[in-house]
């Protein structure tokens, strides 16, 4: 993983001429060199942990305290995170990186941290975009879980698999693929994020319409907490009290460290087919997605870009035909051949009856080809002085138009694009991409982000559909759940982590 940007540095994407033109014409950005400082020039401060503590940690797990390793575990991958580290800012750099190999190692680290009062930040793939890896603590270690990388069990009868949490998306799929199965969870960060991070941040993948969100796939878990081990999940559903798995899902390392997860698996699909549709406008496209979510049939991938995102996407890639106006939808099917054919025919009939025009496989193939590529483009945009960031929210279908307008109104003067990519019978998510030539010059992102968070809450949206809370959404989350909700979270935190060493300042207001 690039220390100053996204993914594999060998896959860096140069800015296409069409995007440079858009930047100039639409946003007044005159490309200029804003490349990151050299990694070798970054010198984090001396670790704030005693040598004795580092030595004691070293007896439990592998410890790395060299500058490069610490820089590579600094913050996550939000745009502000990237801008900070590109400048060589080490204010969020851990004092050491600790790599446990077993659940018991994790318990040992938590015990030592409790005794010595330093903080522990579970680190999966490090792709958090909400400040989930930047605790408010005088001294902290990044607990890198990459050595917990085994597929522990496949239960073919129940169609579940138990995996250690440090497995990254591709390796987990590879191990399950060898047995003929898939989890079906493909967020845009799939190539770098970890199984544990998917659960800790309630991730949602691009095929969520067909396979479900990651939290819907989790049926069991083992969690190391400073107060001991939690083992949860004896069946998919149970009436034995409130479901404590739900307390761990989305807990972002503030309650404990998930060390293994049991998840639902499906047979590998025989067929994968993605197609494009054009709708006259965002409202008619959204109505069609709602209809499918409520009355079926349900495709596996279902996403709709608004007019601006469609227009900017066109400038970059392919045409959606006939005047190139309107909104592009990607509708995909995965499964067994016969079943996919029937589902596709029925979906075509519904979408055509609701004003959609079928565009065939071209746009679908183009989406499939580029589905993990956009974050590389962000690095190239930052290199030339443009600001790009994303944010997301969710609400009930009836409130979608209000929330959509409220977010756009909170971000005046910037290019704001939106898509719907996760849908349910009652609700949908809205995912916004903001491109700006002003942020960092005459406008400030922190201010804009605070305004948009407030607008989301005021418009009845949730502060996150799938990125989580971290530090960036903590204040808005407190408003969303109210003082009593905050007190419940704090009580859970006190009981599982009495010394408050796990991710202080993250999630819990
Ligand atoms: C370019 C890009 C695209 C993205 N696309 C998507 C997307 O399509 N869908 C989506 O849902 N999200 C997306 N994200 C957000 C992010 O990838 C997800 O939140 C992902 O689930 C984080 O996984 P991770 O392993 O990187 O976790 P990390 O970033 O390492 O950690 C996230 C949080 O969980 C905690 N944590 C990590 N592992 C554990 C564990 N085992 N036990 C307890 N706590 C833990 C961390 O301390 C932190 O607070 C994207 C991010 C980027 C940068």
Can you walk me through this structure?
There is one protein chain. This protein is α+β, with helices and mostly antiparallel strands and 509 residues long. Helices cover 36% and strands 21% of the residues. It has helices spanning 17-27, 51-60, 67-72, 79-86, 103-116, 169-177, 195-200, 208-211, 214-217, 245-248, 282-295, 307-316, 337-353, 361-370, 374-383, 400-409, 445-458, 474-496; strands at residues 62-64, 96-99, 119-123, 140-144, 151-155, 160-164, 181-182, 218-225, 228-232, 257-264, 266-267, 271-279, 301-305, 327-335, 357-360, 387-396, 415-420, 427-436. It starts with 16 loop residues before the first helix and ends in a 13-residue tail after the last helix. The chain binds flavin-adenine dinucleotide. Flavin-adenine dinucleotide binds next to strand 3, helix 7 and strand 10.
The percent of residues in helical segments reads 25-40%
Q: What shape does the CA trace take? A: globular
Secondary-structure-based class equals alpha+beta
Ligand identities = flavin-adenine dinucleotide
- Please tell me how large the radius of gyration is: 23 Å
Strand order of the largest sheet: 15-12-14-13-17-18-16
Mean pLDDT level? 95
Q: Main beta sheet: strand number and arrangement? A: 7 strands, antiparallel
Number of strands: 18
Helical run tally: 18
The span between the termini is: 31 Å
Proportion of residues in extended strands = 15-25%
Task: Pick out the low-confidence regions.
Answer: none
